[in-house]
Amino acid sequence: MITATYEVPWSEHLMERAESIAIGMTIGAWDDVHPLRQKELRAFRGEVGFVTQVSAEVGRFSIHYPVQNIKPTIGSLLTVVFGKLSLDGAIRLVGLDLPAEFTQHFPGPALGLPGLRAKFGVHHRPFVMSIFKRENGARLDEFTEAFEQQLAGGVDWIKDDEIFFHDDNAPLFERIQVARKLLDERLERTGQKGFYAPNLVGTPKEILGTARAAVEQGADGFLVSPYVVGLDILIDLRREGIEVPIIAHPAFVGGTIAPHPYGIAPDILLGQLPRLAGADIVLFPSPYGSLGMNRNLALAVHQRHIEPSRVPEVVSGPSAGIHAGLIAQLIEDFGYDIVVNAGSAIHGHPHGTEAGARVLMDTVREVCHEL
Amino acid sequence: MITATYEVPWSEHLMERAESIAIGMTIGAWDDVHPLRQKELRAFRGEVGFVTQVSAEVGRFSIHYPVQNIKPTIGSLLTVVFGKLSLDGAIRLVGLDLPAEFTQHFPGPALGLPGLRAKFGVHHRPFVMSIFKRENGARLDEFTEAFEQQLAGGVDWIKDDEIFFHDDNAPLFERIQVARKLLDERLERTGQKGFYAPNLVGTPKEILGTARAAVEQGADGFLVSPYVVGLDILIDLRREGIEVPIIAHPAFVGGTIAPHPYGIAPDILLGQLPRLAGADIVLFPSPYGSLGMNRNLALAVHQRHIEPSRVPEVVSGPSAGIHAGLIAQLIEDFGYDIVVNAGSAIHGHPHGTEAGARVLMDTVREVCHEL
């Protein structure tokens, strides 16, 4: 059974509401079904798990949904457990227990945390990623220069800004070639590996076609915003044989994970589901910096990225407004199994992008006693 | 320019915040860009439209985004205008002005309201659609019987339940064949046209493949839940040459359109965007019945479906818990350019599904003086 837990305003009629949901979201009706047919249909019927009052105002209940009712896609899962229900007044999805019988059909990350640690030889510190800024309108020579500077600063990975769509002046395949060349040069010079994740955009069909072509052109990573394109695009990318790291950006998810009493708990939507669908690196707002997610919620998201599961752990990216001054706190709270991901702090450094990247990298090494 | 309007808690520093967003979500940085380069980059730079205080607590501001920064997909649009911003505390997207320069790249509905009126010969009343219920676990003979009864009751269109995924006992292509045959028989007997919209499910790639194959098998309509799969799947379906009516189901959107101060106004997400992307019929919670969207918000969604625009009007489906007793009110509030869409009221009728469908159909005709 897939068990979903919900919070709603407490009411003495909560058991009736839960029972109506358990039937309504599975078998549609029950009492007027012939007893012989009931026997056959029982396997499709939802059941109430528990109903409880958690405070004077808040009630909580759980529903068990038969696994066979739900196709192994995130879309099908969300349509059943929080499709129509999402529109049913004040109701929030706060828990989702997915049995191996369901999760076994999902690809999970191509590399995940263990694969990325092995591939990049980074074992005793967080990864460090630099975000391109000012990409809109940038020419290829500007892209190249900024890429060189970020690399020279020693960061592991470099990704596009998620708002970078208009790339006529620095087209995707040309950026990939420049990045490939500069990464190879650095590898030869210093032994440090890295990758560049361009922003993978378009309709679902365009995204899949572009990803295939880009990998042929030497792409070794991608940035995707799966909350606008649908998380199942990650499943498709994995099934298409895309084995390079995919970074999931949280764009657009804010409205859905916003505080009670609506929407979905962030640890489900930013933690559990992108890991299952196939992201390797999952970005979310850190408790510090410019977006400031509630600390407990951010830690819960992180926990979902590294808790035991059938699919590999993913690299957790508590992001937005990260700068060197926050790194000690970030590592104290989240540990080493994260990516320190920064953009404005790097490019806005008074001594330039290379210096900004180096300060970030050195601070991470220092905190991790690598210096 | 694409103009997005936001509501946030009022602050005396709102102009600064708006300016920081206008730069941050477009060009990244401005003041430290060389004046000569500034000249070149000005075309990529966002601008603040207005900043105003609407009440003691609420401020409103607008940002103009250059059209060229945004690719013509819903995903790209939402990533720029409400991607990272959706995570920026209490902020709600309340308006979105899209110029023809942008919307011209979108397919819009295949048929829309005018095309559906012409195709089905229904001109002076709302369309009537019946929703399958109790589909999980149903056998093909049960599907056939329920389909016959709904048709016999005289409804125009019949659609799957959006939670219907496990169709081993009544597979998609077999359902389509049954529906095709029964619809053709009724057309010959009574002259009344109709269509059947099966639930189109899977990953984006699976959805596109299934849609093509299903149309070859005689499918003449589809139900899609675009808020879990991403609205751009509609663009892909249109581009694939799928010209049958597509019904957009609001599953999962509740968390994002929930009341202030987060998320997105429902008229944007359930009104403006699915019409642009390519839905023909857009379902949303009516102010009555079982979900009960705020009446003004539901009317605003409807208005978006029929207001003048570059793409055809779509059929508006104020839904959920609709029964005969609500039809007069529904038509008084929303007019004729809607689909009256019901499920439980039809199948739960004491004299059976056919009687339930007939009561609904007769009531619509009666209210519209067709009886």
Walk me through what this model shows.
Two copies of one chain form a homodimer. Chain A is an alpha/beta fold. The first copy, chain A, has two domains: 2-103, Alpha-Beta Plaits, CATH 3.30.70.150; 112-367, Alpha-Beta Barrel (TIM Barrel), CATH 3.20.20. Chain A contains 16 helices and twelve strands. Chain A has helices at residues 14-24, 35-41, 74-82, 100-103, 112-120, 140-152, 172-190, 204-216, 226-229, 232-239, 254-257, 266-277, 295-306, 327-334, 344-347, 353-367; strands at residues 2-9, 47-53, 58-65, 92-97, 127-131, 157-159, 195-197, 222-224, 246-248, 281-285, 315-319, 339-342. In chain A, the strands form three sheets. Chain A has a four-stranded antiparallel β-sheet, with helices on one face. The model of chain A has no long low-confidence stretch (mean pLDDT 95). The interface between A and B is large, with 82 and 82 residues.
| The CATH topology of the largest domain in chain A | TIM Barrel
The number of distinct β-strands of chain A equals 12
SSE pattern of chain A, N- to C-terminal: EHHEEHEHHEHEHEHEHHEHHEHEHEHH
- Which two chains touch over the largest interface? A-B, 82 and 82 residues
Fourth CATH level, the homologous superfamily of the largest domain in chain A: Ribulose bisphosphate carboxylase, large subunit, C-terminal domain
Query: How many H/I helical runs of chain A?
Result: 16
Unreliable spans of chain A? none
